Amino acid sequence: MPSSILPDSLLSYRFLSHLAANASGTAAAFVVRRPDRRRDGYVSALHLFDGTAERRVLSHLASPLYAWEDDTHLLAHLTAPTRRGGASAVTELYRVDLSGGGRELAVTLPVPLEEFNVLADGQLLCSALLAPSDLDQLFNGAPQKNAVAERPSANGYARFEGIPFYADGRGFLHNRTRRLFLFNRRQGTATPISPQDFIVEAYAADRAGRAVYFCGQRDSGVRKISDTLWRYDLKDGALERLYHGNLDIRRIYPLGDAAIIAATDRAAYGHGQSDDFFLLRGGQLRPLAQPGFMTHNTVSSDCRLTSGVPREVEYNGRIYFPAVRGYQSHLFSLGADGSLEDHLTFAGSIDALARLNDRWVAIGLRDLLRQEIYALDGVAPANANATARSGGEALPQTVRLTHLNAGGVRGERAVVPAHLNFACGSPDGARQTVDGWVLPPADGEAGKKYPAILTIHGGPRAVYGAVFSHEMQYWAHHGYYVLYCNPRGSDGKDDAFADIRGGFGDDDYQDILRFVDLALQAHPGIDAARIGVTGSSYGGFMTNWIVCHTDRFRAAAAQNSISNWVSLAGTSDIGYHFIPDQTGARPLLPNVEKAWAQSPLRYAGNIRTPLLFLHSEHDYRCPPEQAYQLFTALKLGGQETRFILFNNESHELSRNGRPKNRIARLRTLTEWFDAHLKESA
Predict the structure, then answer these.
(1) CB neighbours (10 Å) of residue 427?
(2) Measuring CA to CA, which residue among 14, 37, 33 is closest to residue 663?
(3) If DSSP states are collapsed to H, E and C, what string results for 14-81?
């Protein structure tokens, strides 16, 4: 009998990220992180892959920060022996000789870096969150002491001068903003690139080492969504403003003597509107292509630690990037002539991309396996033929190249999901398809009835797909059917399908209930009287909304949820701009009733379903006050409820929280559903 997948099976998983090839494309490095029970964290190692074999070259990284210096050397953020296991604000970068020459300390920077790149002349292009008090120390002779100034919070208070004043995963900002600077290793000096009062949102350097492009906005006290685009000349240090307007610039792709900009004006579909592409050449910005869909990965999974936004790769004068169509990643490319090509359908999620030995390789999730590296063979050149332009179904051959996650649960057997879909309308009148899946119990018997858990993704502009989910597989091995779908509001289709602004809890709610009905028809083993519902973030909102509007679910669990859009506008790190846009209450203050009408708290008196709240103490995206409010209302109303608060965790608890808390979260959820849905309940 195959072993069951358990909550602590997580400890045997490996998480891959930060794939990058050297300049000649003969080798690629990537980071492998594994959970460490004793340290209650993740141990990072750097691996090298030559296209056929992989090997570990560094066992302990302080963070996933590394960059290629040349074909045989890289700089990496190593854990110094005297500091192993501890935190340090100093960033020490070691030069590593991959041909066997060892390692040596190359750079010590007195600030914690967010990212760095090695430029063509050997200088480092660095980004870091810096406060005004940090700047003089950093940019005056590279001091040896720690340049992170004492924060007001160390004296028992914090001072805010702008919004947002905190950010999820970073905590209180203390007036720190992202700055770009150059570090000259020979001279030991740092030179600022971005102006002191400028907040950098995105940046990129061209491969020839001529210029750095960056975008963002002046620090006016209220962080804006529209951006200014700048070019910094690496030869003479000249700073040139290239664009100032209403575009929200999300990514910059240098391409020869030009740059491609992914941006949106948000005019038709608000903050969730897909990117358009613009060509920047000779200081002029002109429209290039309008894909009509999100140009990054949005496949949800609890088996990756980083976000689903892989770096783009330039090859033969084109930018290659993954994007989701339906519920799978596709490999696209874009040329400076505006031609957009769909080269390959990857039956899962492309999490990182590189060009290695004239072959595309990717970190991916597919075939109900956890992350591995795959070769994407058979990718036709741009404009090769109609098959490539229509998705390349006849061309690609995806080959698994690594087996880093093969040593998981002994005898593990993943349950295969059954795909279901139905047609629905969208605001533009087009017929679209809602996709969903049902995982049956791993050892279910024909003719028997089993409980089910409906789980709802966050976003809402994200997708579920047929990829491995630890949480879902555990529930299937624990005797549950698991139901999940992509209702309206999800990604994978067009902007009209994803647009539920001003109507949260309307079309999306109806799609979810319709999917449950469809699952019950297709799988008679589901006991309709024993179904639970759960979800996180937007999924937590929908869980709250569902139990406010129907009693068909036996139990519910709202994770990092939303109950009151009005208060969330003032407490979320993105609330002041995101909530008015999404609820249609723009501006918020004269239109509070519209946001309140979409708030589950307004309907709390209707709830009769036992409701568990799980929340992260340091969730600054959907702060705990959202759950406190609804929990209090239910207690005052005499309803069955419980609150579990996970200390020192962010909004990302289920994806990259500390291993002990991730395991405890899954056990807590399951115990709640067992108590209400199992036959003994």
Answers:
(1) 15
(2) 37
(3) CEEEEEEECCCCCCEEEEEEEEECCCCEEEEEEEEECCCCEEEEEEEEEEEEEEEEECCEEEEEECCH
- Check residue 670 and report its DSSP letter: H
Query: Which residues on neighbouring strands pair with residue 363, listed in sequence order?
Result: 352, 373
Sequence-separated contacts (24+) of 422-426 with Cβ below 8 Å: 422/514, 422/515, 422/518, 424/488, 424/507, 424/511, 424/514, 426/488, 426/493, 426/494, 426/496, 426/497
The two tokens of residue 302 are 């609890």
What are the angstrom distances between the C-alpha of 595 and each of 564, 578, 584?
8, 12, 7
- What is the rounded distance in angstroms from the CA atom of residue 233 to the CA atom of residue 210? 6
Predicted confidence (pLDDT) per residue in 550-573, tens digit: 999 999 999 999 999 999 999 999
Residue (of 562, 565, 546) closest to 554 by Cα position: 546
Q: What is the DSSP letter of 521?
A: H
Closest C-alpha among 607, 598, 678, 617 to residue 640 = 607
The one-letter amino acid at 674: D
Distances (CA, A) of 251 to 239, 274, 301: 19, 12, 23
Residue 149 CB contacts under 8 Å (≥ 6 apart), including other chains: 131, 133, 134, 137
Q: H or E element: which one contains 626?
A: helix 625-636
Contacts made by residues 222-229, CB under 8 angstroms, sequence distance 24+? 222/162, 222/163, 222/576, 223/162, 223/163, 223/164, 223/199, 225/266, 225/271, 225/577, 227/201, 227/263, 229/261, 229/280, 229/285
Token pair 């009408």 is found at 597
Q: Where are the beta strands (DSSP E) in 596-652?
A: 611-616, 641-646
Q: Residue 234 and residue 186: Cα distance in Å, rounded?
A: 16
Most confidently predicted of 138-147, 216-225, 515-524: 515-524
Q: Which domains does the chain have, with CATH numbers?
A: 418-564+599-677 (3.40.50.1820)
Contact (Cβ atoms closer than 8 angstroms) between residue 488 and residue 513: no
Degrees to nearest 5, angle at CA 571 with 295 and 651: 50
Average of per-residue pLDDT across 182-203: 92
Length of the chain: 681
Whole-prediction pTM value? 0.93
Read out DSSP for 294-309? -SS--B--SS-SS-S-
Distance from C-alpha of 113 to C-alpha of 118, rounded to nearest angstrom:
14
Cα distance between residue 57 and residue 96, in whole Å: 9
β-strands 198-205, 313-315 pairing: unpaired
Sheet holding 340-346, edge to edge: 313-315, 318-325, 328-335, 340-346
Q: What is the distance between the alpha carbons of residues 214 and 209, in angstroms, rounded to a whole number?
A: 14
pLDDT, tens digit, for every residue of 431-487? 799 999 999 999 999 999 999 999 999 999 999 999 999 999 999 999 999 999 999
Q: Order of strands, edge to edge, in the sheet holding 73-78?
A: 15-21, 28-36, 41-49, 54-70, 73-78, 91-97, 102-109
